[in-house]
Write a structure and sequence with these properties.
- The protein has 137 residues and is α+β, with helices and mostly antiparallel strands.
- Helices cover 59% and strands 13% of the residues.
- The chain contains five helices and four strands, in the order H-E-E-H-E-E-H-H-H.
- Strands 1-2-4-3 form a four-stranded mixed sheet.
Length: 137
């Protein structure tokens, strides 16, 4: 039964994982690396680092998660943010294809109420509360 539930979580999160795989596999073509850690694939350096730098405040992003894919600037940034990003993997397993819209709408909601888009997002607050660093990502 546990194997079935794990498989169901992977399938539920797959629409987001697919986006991460496209970015990650493209990043590999431009000098990136990949490894499997737990239930996630971690892509880093090369084209992945370039991609992250294109995002708003991208130079400050250690890593980001899309389903079961974690995109990181470097090997070291993934080490620092691994526990934080693992919480996001669990969130994708819970929210599935609704995770990205829920994350975005949560950011907009907290911003409209005077909060900070990233820092006060409930998904980020959960990840910070559950990792041991409290400030990673």
């Amino acid at each position: 039964m546990k194997s079935f539930l794990n498989f169901a979580k992977v399938v539920w999160a797959f629409p987001n994982t697919f986006i991460g795989l496209v970015i990650g596999l493209t990043g590999l073509l431009f000098g990136g690396h990949v490894r499997r850690v737990g239930r996630a694939l971690e892509f880093y350096e090369g084209g992945i680092k370039w991609f992250l730098h294109q995002l708003p405040n991208g130079h400050f992003i250690l890593a980001m998660t899309l389903g079961h894919v974690v995109l990181g600037q470097t090997d070291a940034s993934l080490e620092i943010s691994r526990e934080h990003e693992a919480v996001h993997v669990e969130q994708y397993e819970r929210w599935g294809p609704f995770m990205l819209p829920a994350y975005f709408l949560s950011s907009v909601y907290v911003w409209l109420r005077g909060g900070r888009l990233y820092r006060d997002n409930p998904f980020e607050r959960e990840a910070r509360a559950r990792d041991h660093h409290g400030e990673s990502n």
